[in-house]
Sequence to fold (106 residues):
Amino acid sequence: MSSNPINLAIRFILEISVLFIAAYWRWHQTAGFTQYFLAVGLPLLFASLWGIFTVKGDPSRSGKTIVQTPGLIRLFLELALFGFTCWALFDSGFNRLFLTPTRLDF
Fold:
């Protein structure tokens, strides 16, 4: 059983977007050494979570898994990562439909 290539491409773009947005957010939240460390470390943590906790037999991941995870747990993991990404975009000032950064300073 194989997945549609268009679905796999969209999934890949979304997963890469999560990693880039996490790096962008951390880069603009800190300064100094921690800026470099966290801008690289947070996306690595996300990618590790994404790659380690997979559903057994997932055709988009070649069917192999490191830690077999039930589908519901995997769903909550992905929702948490995508939810964090949405919040990070909002916190970074991307709170409109268009990609113009604006801060909500009250």
Remarks:
- Residues 50 and 78 are 8 Å apart (CA to CA).
